[in-house]
Amino acid sequence: MRTIPRAVWVLAGGSLVNRFGGFVLVFLVLWVRHLGYSIPAAGLAASAYAAGKMAAGPLGGELTDRIGGRVTTALSMFASAAAMLCLQAARPLPAIVALAALTGLASELYRPATSALLADAVRPDQRVTAFGVYQLGVNLGMAAGPAVAGILAEQGFGWLFAVDAATSAAWGVLALVLLPARSRPPYGADPALAPPDPARRGPAVRLLLSTLLINVVLFQSEGAFAVWVTGHGHNTATYGGLLSWAAVLTVALQLPLSNRTRHWDPAAVITVTCVSIGLGMGLVGLGGALPTLVLAVTVWTFGELVQWPVAAAYLTDLAPPNQLGRYAGLRSLAYGTALLIAPAFGTALYAWAPAAVWPACTAIGLAAGALVLPDLRRPNRRAGGDFATADIPSASGETHRRGLVAGG
Q1: ∠147-111-248 over CA atoms, to 5°?
Q2: Please, where are the H alpha helices in 198-265?
Q3: What pTM was computed for the model?
Q4: How does DSSP classify residue 130?
Q5: What tens digit of pLDDT does each residue of 349-388 get?
Q6: pLDDT digits over 171-180, tens only?
Q7: Are 242 and 297 in contact, with CB atoms under 8 Å apart?
Q8: Sequence-ordered alpha helix ranges (H) in 21-126
Q9: Mean pLDDT over residues 12-26, rounded?
Q10: What is the pLDDT of residues 96-155, one digit of tens each?
């Protein structure tokens, strides 16, 4: 851990601040319901946020490769704070939907920038650990944030928007002050860099499709799961506490598991964790008793915390050196597409048959894991799934060690 550069810790600290106050998306469905709208209307607002997030992925990736990660991050956070305050003041459903989309766009622009900054800041063999450190910051914020948000929501939903906007603005200031001006050259600075290797394109596409499917499952924790928990007699504080339990598990296990799994075959890790996430969501259907809900959250969280840094590092190793932002943007697009589909899918299925949501999640999780199975048969993969390295010229003309997936 002493070899992890300062930029990684700055990104982790900024994510802690931002995620501690990242209340609105988690409680968006409940807030719209609080205003008197139906469950499908609440799902429409959440899907509008996802539509903005979808646009944010490619746009944020392009901005990262052109103007750098620091400026992109600050722009995202300041715009997010302003959009959040406007959303809080909206009352007609069309205005809520439009502002939810704008908030999703603004608040998610920074994600490709973060991935590119992390990948550039460390050696290829440190990427899983670096993404694990970043995710630790995210979940330290989430460990306290949702529980506090649940309490604040009992006093008034306006508090959620105010604190969310304040923490976004705070991370924007930190980004301008502490992040490097540019972690990498603008996109296209070195035309001699090779385009994507066709042999890597298939694994990248399968990984992105798997990411989309498994996040349709995971995002039920912010939609159908919220309605299921409150519909079984629990209050918003209990729902927030369940999400905080997931974050506490991640805080406790993220770094040791990241250090262990960075030498494992990434396709195998992703397959197994997709199954774990699907089974965890399936357990929700066993009932609304608190021990059952805690068990379900534990199982799907274990899969999520193991998968996230491995999948993020895997995709950056498949990306050309001058397109880290674009590839990270595609990953954000997969998340955004999942977030667009998940609320509408989950709430509509819940309205028809609440118990049907959870076996459907299990089936989708199995399908997500099956998508990456072909990568297990790729030739020349090292035992243990470690990444090989090769000398690649950087945009400055210097040679450095860049990770290549063995056999890719």
Answers
A1: 30
A2: 198-218, 224-231, 236-261
A3: 0.75
A4: H
A5: 888 888 889 999 999 999 999 998 877 755 434 333 334 3
A6: 999 999 998 8
A7: yes
A8: 24-34, 39-67, 69-89, 93-108, 110-121
A9: 75
A10: 999 999 998 998 899 899 988 998 888 888 889 899 899 888 777 766 776 677 777 777
CA dist 51 and 91 (Å) reads 20
How far is 301 from 92, CA to CA, in rounded Å? 36
Q: Would residue 156 be called left, alpha or beta, if left means φ above 0 and alpha means ψ between -120 and 50 degrees?
A: left
Orientation of helix 39-67 relative to helix 110-121, angle to 10°: 50
* Res 270: pLDDT: 94
Q: Which residues contact 218 (CB under 8 A, 6 or more apart)?
A: 277, 300, 304, 338
Residue at 359: amino acid letter:
P
Using N-to-C axis directions, what is the helix angle for 39-67 and 69-89, rounded to 10°? 160
| Structural contact between residues 336 and 53, judged by C-beta atoms closer than 8 angstroms | yes
Helix (H, G, I), strand (E, B) or coil at 399: strand
Structure tokens at 34: 């609080």
Q: Is 9 exposed, middle or buried (0-12, 13-18, 19+ CB in 10 A)?
A: middle
Tracing tokens 């399908």 back to the chain, one arrives at 367
